[in-house]
Amino acid sequence: MNPFLTRRASRAIHVGSIAVGGDAPVSVQSMTCTPTADVGATAAQINALAEAGCDIVRVAVPDIEAAKAIAAIKKQVTLPLIADIHFDYRLAIAAVKAGADGLRINPGNIGGDKKVRQVAACANDHAVPIRIGVNAGSLEKDLVRCHGATAEAMVESALRQIQRLESLGFDRIKVSLKASDVGRTVAAYRLLAERSDVPLHLGVTEAGGLFGGIVKSALGIGMLLAEGIGDTIRVSLTRDPVEEVRVGHEILKALGIRRRGPEFISCPTCGRCQIAVQQIAAQVEEALWKRPLPITVAVMGCAVNGPGEAKEADVGIAGGQGKGILFKKGRVVKTVEEKDLVRELLAAVEELAAEKQAPGTPERIRKIATRSTRGTRKNVASTHRQRRGKEIRSNNGSSG
């Protein structure tokens, strides 16, 4: 945890082997988008999420076939599984008996006290936590009449359901308070953080596609984490869930809360840039983002931005005309032909990885480096042709 953050005190629970709350690291979650009853497809997606750094994964359980599939999925994956339940309390019980490590329910739509009591008893018997998932779009009618679909109504709903479970002797509880806009989401979490010690699952629901979803999630989740609020996060994007995990780790990294993978520095480019810096930066980031390396890597377009402005980077490259430099901690190591910049940078990263004894897959890096170099050569050739064409047109001028 970054020393400038004072983290809110919360009770500790476990989702499978992952601790949530207390002094546990902030965990990153996602949710599969495959039909859960399709065991092979769901297990494959969960394993892809694990490779990306996901800590906990949630699966939809719309029917009994999906609930029963959890047992088979668990045999093929290592991540803790949370079963997402709506309306039918029997699915919650079936999912727990099939091996689910946690439940996400809204006690308000599961049914009466008798049904909630059965779910709580089953969860207690199996030491499984329950997340109370409050959503601004599905609040109890009496709360909406009294408060509207506001942050206050969301908090009252959460407190009502917390009390309901605790009255049944169940305290392995975490809570989410999600709206599709940042304002209500942040306000609701701030209010609940003052009134309860339950661990908080942060997220902005229905955040949208790539750009809108990232902005909403970074603002909503980021503001709360910066205030010390939040124990686990899920970034909601209308995208491949692997991208949700990637964004989640970037939010944590940007706040200095938790670091997974290299820190990337790259310039936004300008008219001084004489290399295909956008393509090079994308190739380097794609090659390295899954590797748990505690290093900073820079890709700079010209001598103005690097290595001077990127001198804190462990290793980096800066472009020139047809050439570039490789530097480490601001010190120039060598001059490199533009076509070899990606390969040389990734080779330098491998050397650093060996020095730090960080786990990784150097063979994968070499393969990507080879592909990246080929792609860079094509992009560089295209860039040079475009630049040369502009020079010719400029020199010929236009008379009329």
Describe this entry's structure for a reader.
This protein is α/β, with parallel strands linked by helices. The chain has two domains: 13-254, Dihydropteroate synthase-like (TIM Barrel); 263-387, Sulfite Reductase Hemoprotein, domain 1, CATH 3.30.413.10. 46% of the residues lie in helices and 17% in strands. The protein is built from 13 helices and 15 strands. An eight-stranded parallel sheet has the order 8-7-6-5-4-3-10-9. Strands 11-12-13-14-15 form a five-stranded mixed sheet, with helices on one face. Strands 1-2 form a two-stranded antiparallel sheet. Helix 6 runs antiparallel to helix 7 (151-166) and helix 11 (277-288) runs parallel beside helix 12 (341-356). The N and C termini lie far apart (67 Å). The model is unreliable at 358-400 (pLDDT under 50).
Descriptive keywords:
disordered C terminus; 400 residues; Sulfite Reductase Hemoprotein, domain 1; single chain; alpha/beta; 2 domains; elongated; TIM Barrel; 17% strand
The end-to-end distance, rounded to whole angstroms, is 67 Å
- CATH topology of the largest domain, by name, is TIM Barrel
**What is the helical fraction, as a range of percent?**
40-55%
**What would the average pLDDT be, to the nearest integer?**
86
Shape: elongated
Q: What is the string of SSEs from the N terminus onward? A: EEEHEHEHEHHEHHEHEHEHEHEEEEHH
Low-confidence stretches: 358-400
